[in-house]
Amino acid sequence: MTIRDVAKDAGVSVAAVSKVLRDAYGVSDALRANVRASMDKLDYRPLAAARGMRGQTYTIGIVLPDLRNPFFADIMDGVNTALERTQYRAMVGISQSSVETEMGIVESMIDRQMDGMLMIGSTEDRKNLDIIARRKPLVTIGHHDPEATTFDTVNNHDQQGAMLVVKHLAVNGYRKIAMFSLVSGTSTILIQRELGYRRGMMEAGLGKHINITSSSQILREVQLNARRLLTGPQRPDAIFCWTDLIALEVISVARELGLDIPNDLAVVGYDNTMFCDFAQNNLTSIDQSGEQLGLQAARLLIERIKGRAVTEHFVVTPRIVVRQSSTPAAISA
User: Fold this and answer.
1) CATH number of the domain at 3-46, please?
2) pTM of the model
3) Which residues have a Cβ under 8 Å from the Cβ of 204 and sit 6 or more positions away?
4) Residue 10 · residue 37 · CB < 8 Å
5) 201 with 163: CB under 8 angstroms?
6) What are phi and psi of 198, to 5 degrees?
7) What are the boundaries of each domain within the chain?
8) What secondary structure, in 3-state letters, does the chain show?
9) Alpha-carbon dihedral of residues 308, 157, 285, 176, nearest 10 degrees?
10) Which superfamily does CATH assign the domain made up of 158-288+320-332 to?
11) 59-157+289-316 and 158-288+320-332 share one CATH topology?
């Protein structure tokens, strides 16, 4: 089926069908519905390669660091909501948190003439992101760079979120509050969360108890580091984990060691994913509105594709969602 077949079936000109395909300005709802009905009837699908030669493929590339973290599903829900009333479709690549793999995926997406790029949790520096942004419209989620001018950023206030955690734990009587972080020297979200943790501890008068443990996301390494932290001579009475995925594993290790959550150990995560509400977890967590982050990022990217050049930096205010994992029985009673 060709565009001419669609035009003939719909009783309109080829130019009218082309305008509908391009989502051009001035197309009436009635015309759009008529053309779309003919496209569905004839099972017409525009050839992506041909559309790319004309300037747009109506695809955006999304680069994720991994598929294990449930928070990324929340972000994708927001992206899909933003795209559902547009012609744009998302293509996903997984970088496995590797800079080399991430750049390889980006190059492949550019080679396939995707209209724009959405990078989530990228560890690229400003230089590389600027290079990408000069080639394709770019929006990042989970990358703090308020001085960037070639690409947009969408974040929650990570430093504030970490400070909320420390304040909450200190109010509930915990003193030896440790942070379980990620081994990632270039991640700006980790830098901000660690800074917020340190500031929170100093403001609470707990500077002498500052204790940051870092691990990769490999399950065995997380378990080993959690066990080492919980069996060491300076065992913390609370652990702030950089993400819910790690917090749930810390809870598992703690229970294997016979510790009671939260009376022997409080655990707090970050992201407020759906698993926090499960009865066996009851995990206190920072809500950074993953769906809103995805929604806003997709909106900004489409605006970039359509020609907006003024940079925007969107920041969500985090909030703490308190559950049983950080409220001792003596306090909650």
Assistant:
1) 1.10.260.40
2) 0.82
3) 166, 167, 170
4) yes
5) no
6) -65, -45
7) 3-46, 59-157+289-316, 158-288+320-332
8) CCHHHHHHHHCCCHHHHHHHHCCCCCCCHHHHHHHHHHHHHHCCCCCHHHHHHCCCCCEEEEEECCCCCCHHHHHHHHHHHHHCCCCCEEEEEECCCCHHHHHHHHHHHHHCCCCEEEEECCCCCHHHHHHHHHHCCEEEECCCCCCCCCCEEEEECHHHHHHHHHHHHHHCCCCCEEEEEECCCCCHHHHHHHHHHHHHHHHCCCHHHCCEEEECCCHHHHHHHHHHHHHCCCCCCEEEECCHHHHHHHHHHHHHCCCCCCCCCEEEEECCCHHHHCCCCCCEEEECCHHHHHHHHHHHHHHHHCCCCCCCEEEECCEEECCHHHCCHHHHC
9) 160
10) Response regulator (3.40.50.2300)
11) yes
Q: Which one-letter amino acid corresponds to residue 160?
A: Q
Structure tokens at 281: 């977890």
pLDDT in tens, the chain (333 residues): 788 888 889 898 888 888 887 777 678 888 889 988 998 888 887 765 555 445 688 999 999 988 888 999 999 999 999 998 888 999 999 988 778 888 899 999 998 889 999 999 888 888 999 999 999 999 999 999 999 999 999 999 999 999 999 999 999 999 999 999 998 767 899 999 999 999 999 999 999 999 999 998 888 999 999 999 999 988 999 999 999 999 999 999 999 999 999 999 999 999 999 999 999 999 999 999 999 999 999 999 999 999 999 999 999 999 999 999 999 855 443
Measured in degrees and rounded to the nearest 5, phi and psi for residue 279 equal -55, -40
Which is it for strands 59-64 and 319-321: parallel, antiparallel or unpaired? unpaired
Q: How far apart are CA 61 and CA 218, in angstroms?
A: 26
The CATH number that domain 59-157+289-316 falls under is: 3.40.50.2300
d(C-alpha 256, C-alpha 109), whole Å: 44
Tokens of 179: 């942070």
